[in-house]
Write a structure and sequence with these properties.
alpha+beta; 3 helices; rod-shaped
């Protein structure tokens, strides 16, 4: 659906009702599209893909030794 800027100014409630029914409205100004009203969709909070990545990790007493151990494979040329 299209509406002019003047329609938006004087018919906000009707346009918002249209959007709430799921329709998109393109707002034009001097015949050119300037904005789009789209229905608001609540995004459900999804669990982050990295959430819990360290859940089975055992705390390390020596952090430097732990870092050396995990870096060993990347930085050794053997």
């Amino acid at each position: 659906m299209q509406a002019t800027a003047k329609d938006l100014r004087f018919n906000v409630k009707e346009l918002l009702d249209t959007v709430s029914r799921g329709e998109e409205i393109v707002i034009t100004y001097w015949g050119k599209p300037r904005a789009k009203l789209i229905p608001f969709v609540e995004h459900l909070e999804r669990e982050d893909e990295l959430f819990g990545i360290w859940a089975d990790h055992k705390p390390s007493a020596d952090v430097n030794a732990y870092l050396r151990a995990i870096r060993k494979g990347r930085f050794d040329a053997d």
